[in-house]
Structures are given as structure tokens and as C-alpha cells.
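Suppose you are handed only these lines of text.
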Amino acid sequence: MCHSLAELDFAELAERGIYYYIIDVDNTLAPRKFRQCTLSIRQALQSAVEQGYIKRMVLVSNVGNYDAARCGRVEQIAQELGAAFVCAYWPHIKPDPAPFLEGIKLMPGANLDNTVMIGDQIFTDVKGGNRLNLTTVYVDPLGPDHWVTSWKRVIEKIIFRITGWRQ
Ligand SMILES: [Mg+2]
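From them, the structure of the protein bound to magnesium ion can be written out as follows.
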């Protein structure tokens, strides 16, 4: 877990042989509906790329039913970061393994051992990553949730309390 992607210890992940990044978009890279990556996060990612801690990145975002506008936004943020991207459509949305595997295919050199999944939701990002035995990182959401997600936050809070993962 980490508070923000901007604070992630990229060097520590590299030490463990992890150089490939699957990253969620909404509330992980940018607040919902924002069309640009949060500045501090973009700078941290670019610096990690320059230092050789990140070899490749792919953004994986659930867009539900086919929606060109929502996918266009994901593409725009991916271009800003020099990342590949996967728009996951129903029914193959996170935590389904399909979009994660598609993302790994888009990063030459990536496999299940050298890739990390980073996102702000336990039940899509972390659960999906864990299904494939990927290393996973949970980050705190950057902004307000979609109403569908709000109820899941209640369950996340209960999990955090029981496990003591977060105070
Ligand atoms: Mg998200």
C-alpha cells in the first residue's frame, strides 16, 4: 500500500526484479473525468523511467460498455505518459484476468513475475492482480468515486480495520 503513486518506492520494486507497470487510471493517475495525469504522479513516473526503474507501462481501465469517449480519455493519458493502454469492456472488465493479460502482452519483456499492478480499488485492481499472482499496490483514491464504487469503499474500510493494513 502507499498513499499516492507519487510516493511509491520504484527503486525497491526494481530491486525485487519488477520493472513493468500495469496502472489503473481513475483515481489512481487522475481524478475521475480529468483528462490529464496528476502532475506529481507524472513527474514521479517520468523520473522512475529515466532512472531505469520502470521499463514499460500500460494503463488498464474499466470502461464498461463500449464508449469511445471514455476510451479516448484513457488513450490521452497514456500518450501523456508514454504508456500503452487497454480499455476493458464488459464482460471482460477488472478483476477478470483478460485485460491484465492483454496489458502484459503490450509490454515486450513483461511477464507475471516482473510486473506490478497498481490501483485504488481492492475489488477490481488488487483482486484482479492477485488472481494472476502479480505483485499489487493499493493507493488511496485521488478524488470522489463513481456512485457504484462508493458502496465498495464501505467494505474496503471494514477490510482495512480487520487487517490493520491502514490506520
Ligand atoms: Mg480506479
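What can we learn from it? Residues 24, 26-28, 119-121 surround magnesium ion (CB under 6 Å). The domain at 5-163 is CATH 3.40.50.1000 (Rossmann fold).
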